[in-house]
Specification:
Blueprint lengths: L1 H30 L3 H4 L7 H8 L5 H10 L4 H30 L3 H25 L5 H4 L2 H24 L7 H24 L5 E3 L4 E3 L1
Antiparallel strand pairs: 1-2
Helix pairs in contact: 1-5, 6-9, 8-9
């Protein structure tokens, strides 16, 4: 058991380190336009101030750079330069993907994420009201969440296909999505009911015993 816990901790630590390094590399890459800026001696240098004082629109970046320039030059070269390079590699892959694929669908994706979050909250509240005696871990768990996600994806895909291939769909698009969300809530609650109806609970006190 101890070995398994140690292995789990190591895996979590590795995942955390990878995520932190990735985030830091993207942050450094977006803060500095070129690697030469990282190895500047100090932000107090007149040329540095003169150069960045003209960039009022990126004042946040200037403040971040001024904070980072308090780090000794040798440490910046050792730590920030590799992070900038890694960030540059990641951005060279992500930027074309974002510009050519994701931007056109960004607003649509955001819409469905917000709608999905609202549906999740409604189902969660409905679950607490409909099944007050059951622990949340038994009703709103991975299986329930997976079902909701699948139903939401099906609704989103169906909405997109109808929008493309059935022009008249736009006349009742909002109503269809509202009905779809209601169906998702009902189906999820029915699923939770049948999934938990076999659970048995026994309540005892000094004089009586109750069971379902």
């Amino acid at each position: 058991m101890e070995k398994e816990k140690t292995e789990d901790l190591k895996k979590k630590a590795q995942k955390t380190a990878i995520a932190a390094t990735t985030a830091a590399s993207l942050f450094v890459n977006n803060t500095y336009e070129t690697p030469s800026e990282i190895i500047e001696k100090s932000y107090e240098d007149e040329d540095f101030n003169e150069h960045y004082n003209h960039k009022k629109k990126s004042s946040f970046k200037v403040k971040i750079k001024q904070i980072l320039y308090n780090i000794p030059q040798s440490l910046r070269i050792v730590f920030l330069l590799p992070l900038w390079s890694l960030g540059w590699l990641l951005m060279s892959v992500l930027r074309p993907l974002w510009e050519n694929v994701l931007v056109g669908y960004a607003s649509e994706i955001s819409y469905w994420l917000i709608l999905g979050a609202i549906v999740f909250v409604i189902i969660l509240i409905s679950t607490l009201i409909a099944f007050p005696g059951l622990p949340l871990s038994k009703t709103f768990n991975k299986k329930t969440i997976s079902l909701i996600v699948i139903l939401l994806i099906a609704l989103a895909v169906g909405d997109k296909l109808l929008s493309v291939f059935y022009p008249k769909y736009k006349d009742f698009k909002r109503l269809a999505k509202a009905v779809g969300c209601i169906v998702i809530v009902i189906v999820s609650l029915i699923f939770i009911h049948f999934k938990t109806r076999k659970l048995k609970f026994i309540v005892k006190n000094d004089n009586y015993t109750f069971s379902n």
